[in-house]
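Hello forum,

I keep getting stuck at the same step: I have a sequence, I want structure tokens, and every attempt I make locally crashes halfway through. Rather than fight my setup again tonight, could one of you with a working pipeline run this one for me? It's a single chain of 462 residues.
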Amino acid sequence: MHSNFQVVPIDSITINRPERQRKELKDLEPLARSIQENGLIHPPTVTSDLILIAGERRFTACRDLLGYTHITVSIREEDETTSSQRRLELAENVERLDLDWKDKCHAIREYHNLAVEEDSTWTMEASARALNMGSAVVSRHISLANELDLGTELIVNASQYSVALGIMDRMRERREQASKDKLRDMLGGSTKTEPTSDPLDDVVGSILGTDSAPASNVDTGDLTNEPELEPVSGITPFRCSDFIKFSQAYSGEPYNFLHCDFPYGVNAGKHNSGAAKSFGGYDDSEDVYWELLDALGNSMDTLVSSHAHMMFWYSMDYHAETVARLTSFGWKVNPFPLIWFKSDNSGILPDPKRGPRRNYETALLCTRGDRKIIQAVSNVCPHPNTKHIHMSEKPIGMLRHFFRMFVDDTTSLLDPTMGSGNAVVLAEHLGAARSRGLERDKTFYETARDAYLAGKYDLGEG
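Reply #2:
Ran it on my machine without issues. Output:
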């Protein structure tokens, strides 16, 4: 293909704006200054009919900012397909430093697809050579363009290419790992099923204020002595069950995200007596804390996937012992905890004469295997305290912040002592493949169950 250079009236050039790859023209002033100082080093390219192919920013800077009446252009002498002209425009745009990363991804994909349409033998390597970049780089840009078209929220909202690429790579690895874990479970010859207490089969009673009981195939833990009455339809992700008993009997599909909010072992009711009276207290002795922790350790091989995350809330009173115990279970504990700063200045005041108010709570970020997070977030989240369902509930808004690291469509969440059920409901709302919560206290369980069925959980973005 040959070109020649001519000077033509600037108004004689036609721009088919709706068909242009560039959606907006940025930074024209610096470009105009450069052209004024150095001349038009790279003239715009046009067809023999003076239809602009490439160089719209240069053309616009000369016409609108520098007042050119005539302009030097490179005219493509020979006839060529519209596809070839479009590829020329795309190739030039890809080389620009100021091109938005999303536009670049779409440009590279369109270039490659147009080339394949013209030549069925065209390869990714050929596109890479033509665009002067590695074939892996071309492939990544095309994959990101596909994710953008799918509307993948994290990628659409990414500020730059490297961030979007990291998110996409981690999402792919999480999906691949989840598939491998399921396949490994199947090939292991296991016929695992959820115990007869599968939380999905938790048929709710007393919804309408009438006497009812769960179906006979549901293990109700401490509720087994209730009379069997006609069940009322209604499915929740909750189960009234003791985690220690559940962990001993469990033989179902392992979970890859545990949200553990065990009683801290600090006698919370003593410091929060008002909430305990309003919402009901619970056993928060040190013995209970260690018993639950040991139950987790004893069920690692059956309850927890080989590649998993855990968000483990705990009291700093037992920091060293807790980290040591979790490490012995096979968890890798991140040395920097996740911190919920209570922005309303609430919290416990153990000794007002000798120490400060503790208006924050901490959670350990634990990893088993090499499961990647979805995206990085700050390890500190300021959020006011809430007490809608449980005296020690974790606010949905705060959990949403941290769950951005853990919850997607590959997530299988278990909350062994769910309390309010906020973590379980939020994970379900965020699209987790499976989300289950256990609560041994019948009153707490029923409160969460009724709130779930009545749609009372506030799952807004706040």
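The CA atoms of residues 399 and 423 lie 7 Å apart. If your local run keeps crashing, start a new thread with the error log.
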